[in-house]
Each structure stands twice: as structure tokens, then as C-alpha cells.
Amino acid sequence: xxxxxxxxxxxxxxxxILDFLQDVGKVTAGTILSVxxxxxxxxxxxxVGLAISFRNLPDVRVLRxxxxxxxxxxxxxxxxxxxxxxxxxxxxxxxxxxxxxxLKRAVLxxxxxxFYLHQGINPSGVARAFLTNLEQGEVVEGGSTLTMQLVKNxxxxxxxxxxxxxxxxxxxxxLEQILxxxxxxxxxxxxxxxxxxxxxxxxxxxxxFDKPASxxxxxxxxMMAGLIAAPEEYSPFVDMEAAKQRQRLVLxxxxxxxxxxxxxxxxxxxxxxxxxxxxxxxxxxxxxVTEAVVQELTERFGRDLVLKGGMRxxxxxxxxMQALAEKTVQKWYNRWRRRGVYLxxxxxxxxxxxxxxxxxxVKAVVGGVDYENSQFNRAxxxxxxPGSSFKPFVYYTAFASGQYTPxxxxxxxxxxxxxxxxxxxxxxxxxxxxGEISVRKAxxxxxxxxxxxxxxxxxxxxxIEVTRRLGIESPIEPVVxxxxxxxxxxxxxxxxxxxxxxxxxxxSETTLIVQVTDSSGQMLLDNTPQPQLVLDPWATATLTDVxxxxxxxxxxxxxxxxxxxAGKTGTTSSERxxxxxxxxxxxxxxxxxxxxxxxxxxxxxxxxxxxAPVWQDFMKQALSGEPTKQFxxxxxxxxx
Length: 640
Known about the structure:
There is one protein chain. This protein is of the alpha+beta class. The protein contains 24 helices and 18 strands. The strands form 6 sheets. Strands 2-1-5-13-14 form a 5-stranded mixed beta sheet. The chain has a 5-stranded antiparallel beta sheet with strand order 7-6-18-17-16, with helices on both faces. Strands 3-4 form a two-stranded parallel ribbon. It starts with a helix and ends in an 18-residue tail after the last helix. 48% of the residues are buried.
């Protein structure tokens, strides 16, 4: 009777099978023989014969060196994760040994219980599905082994066609000839989609149960295995009842296979599950930091490697200090807005950068008052005029020239410079002049005319050369008004330059990244500080000594903290930008306040009035618990 049934099926479907084979490639005698004598044991042989016809199938040998696309992770200086980066696939690749035995067994039980017995295809399953699909005229039943699923996901389009199913079988057989079963299972478990943009067992385990795949128990593993067929439909985040039904099905199958006992199956089903949360689409905890890091990574490695290469990026940022910086900026922005400092509140902004002078590691960066409303990172991207906060570069150059000391007299009197057909007459804030004063007093009180005079005396190209050594890359021209900050620089550049003053002339490249490795731990980038002495020690210590007076009794008294500190106020013409940039030996910080549309702040706004209190507030809290350190005394060094 069975023979008669098979004969009827053959008579009905042989013409359609032959037509199909002619569509997909040359029909060999061996193939026709396989079809005309179809049975469960011959189907596999017939499909092997078809391999001759599939001349354009992918070469599965590439999988010997295949590495799935993998999510990159960004961490703070202490190893706390602050962001994950991925393209279409959010995935963390792990070895098979780091996937729990219950999950491996649960997946095999529901997807391919004969995995370790077949050679890529399961003949009886393929035959049954093949004939059923022919009977219905479409693909209605799957016969795919785990290996076939893997090659489908890696190489083939998702269309449900007979030709694709045959291609799956051919490629699966080829794959089984070059990779071991464990290698195939490892690839599958790292490749499979588990819903909610999570790919691979590790990422799915972290998302669904907030634990690594190696720690999944039978209850969790059986639920995860049940999701593979339709992850979003069966997801416990979407429909817990459906997820439990699938879990029961997996446990029943494991019990049928005698891989678990009935008691274990029941206990697993009844066990209460603690779900994690969908985090594949979560935004960064510190978006301004993440954006800056991604920009640097992309410039070095390219976008594809950043989003798909499984990088492990340790940043220089301290999350606690970053949170403090963000809180401080928000607090003072709201305060100044309420007091009318921002004439155009919707355009009002503030930025803060804090750098460790000993390493030039960026500890905190705030690019604006509200990232959701504006993603523009003013700390790194906005070139604003620094005003008088640029003067320390002029005075350092003067000290380093050997021609000036803090007691050297300089004239604060009217003067005129002819620039082509134009005449430039520098003025002090308030319009007054003080006659002949010391260099110390000129810098402490931020007198403009002496700074311009000194700049002309020592040479502005020399000043520019100093700024380049300090890491400032923004365009600078040697215009007469350069000592008054007639250029555009970023808060990051200013904080980095002043950090070198804080370290008495020792400079490392300012960076947000400590190191980058791939997922296996291979070093891709090592930013271990390599400090170089770029400034004269005596000139730097002398500058710091004078800048301490700025805070003690000069224009920066609102920046006084409970320890020695040095810094400089900055205010541009028409009050468009106000700054305070200052430092202690352990930390250098720049604060900028202004409007995005470059409109003036309230009349009378200065860096000492509005930026210095922000700096003071942040530094007091950031240095809480840090020991007080003294700056080097100029007498320790030889004068140029």
C-alpha cells in the first residue's frame, strides 16, 4: 500500500519537479534518476547531485574566517558602560563555551534535535517538507536543519521559493564538510535573530534576562529557544502568555528527547522569571561624550568598523564628574536665564570641558544645555572668540623670551597702529588708562593695551607658535588685536592648552579615548600618555604665579576656591562671549557662555561675573576629597 501511495505521488509530481529543475540549472541523469525513484533516503542524494547545477552559489569556505558583525561598546574610565554602537545588528559574539548548556540543548531540541547526527540536511524531514510543499504549490512546511538555517541567514535571500530551499540544502552539505558541528553551532548561536534588534545569544540574554548567556538557567533558556521561530510575536516583552506557550513546547520536546526529566520540565515552567529590558535602542547615558568619541573613532577607523567591528572603547571620562558637570551647567544656565543674562533665551548656551593636566585625559565634556533640543557640541565644534582668556599665551611667550618678568614695567597708555589704510586704537574695558604698570598688574587686571603692546614687541608669530605647541589647531592670523582674542577657538582647545600650563609645560595629546580593543582583546589603539616638555618651566611657573593673582585679587575673584588656583577671565567686545579658564595641578576647566546666534549677552556681562562662578561651583565639587597641591615656584627653575 505504501508503494502504491508513493507511485501516485511520483506520477503526479515528476513533471513539475523536472520543470523546476530545468529552471534552476542543467538536469543531470543522476538527478532525474533521483527524482524518479524518490524516497526519503534518495532525496538527500538527489540534492547532492543538484550541487553540480548550482554554479553560482556562494563559497562556504569563507566561513572559516567569518566574523559576524558585532556591537561596539563604550565605557567610562572605570569600566562602566555608557553606550553601545551598532548598525542593523546589535550583537556581541561569544565562544560556544560561554553559552550555557541549557540554552544549547533547548535550541537544538526545538530547531534541530538531529543536529549531531546528520550531514547538513535531515533526509526524512526534507522529503516530508518537499512533498508537502509541492502538494500545496508553496512553501508551507519547513524542513530546514540548523545548518540550513545558518546558510540561509548568511548567504541567501529570504524569499520562500523551492530553488532557495534546494540551495540551502546544497550549501548546508558543503558547510558540514569544512566546519565541525561545534563551529557551526557557535556560528548559529551568534548569528540568529532573537527580536528587538538583538542578534546572538549573548546580546539576547543580556536584553531578556539581564545576564550573560553563560548564566542562563533551564527556564530562561527554554523561553529564549522558543522565540527563534517568531521573536517579536513570542517575545515576553510583547506577549508573556505566548512566550510561556512556546517555553512549554520547548520543555516538552526536551523531555521527549530525554534530555531533561518531567520534574525538571515542570520546575522550569513554573519558575518565576526576572525579565531585563529592551536596551538595543537606548540612547547614550552621556550623548555629548558618545558623539565626540564616535567622531574620533570614525576618523581613525571608518564608520563600518565602528558600528560593526565589536570594538571595546575605554574613554577618559569619569561618569561621576560628567554628571556633576552636566548638573552644574544646567543649574547655572537656569539661574542666568532667570536673571536676564541671556537676551535670547532660546539661543542661550553654555559649555564646559574638564581635563586632567597630568594625562590630558578629558574627564567631562558638556556641549550644551540640552542635547535633545540641540545635538551641536559646542565644547568641540563651536569656535568662539576667547577674549582676554587668550592673553596668557601672549604673556607666557613674553616670559619665555627672556625679556619680561612679572615686575617689568609696561605702558597702559593710548597708542595707535596703522593697518593698511585703517587705524587701530586698542582700548581697555571701561575706557580708562593706568599709565606705566607692571606686567603682573596688567595681566591681573586684564588691561588690553599692555597686552597689545607686548604682542607687538615679542612678535605675534611667536605667540601663534606657542598655541600650536599647546594643541590649538583653529586658524590664527597675526593681527594686531590677536592678544585680545580676535580669533575663534573651542572650549576643548582652551582647556587642553591651560592643562599644559597646569602641568608646568608638560603636554600630551588631549583625548577622550584611553584605548580601543576588538572583542577578543587585541589592541587597536593605545592612548597611554606620552608627555613632552613643550614649554619653558620657569616661564610657565611664572605665568601660573601671576594667574593665581587673577583669582586672588584680579578680574577672577568669583572663581576663588579652597586651594591655590590659577585662571583667566575672557570677555569679547559687545559681550557676545564670556569665559573663565582655570586650573589646579589636578584639573583644568574651561567654561564658555554665549548665544548660538552670536547675539550679545546682557549689558555689562563679563567672564568674571558670569563664567567664573560656574567654574568655581564645578571645581569645588569636582575636587572634593582631592588633596590640595601647590604649584611649582618659579625659583625652582632657571630663567631663560
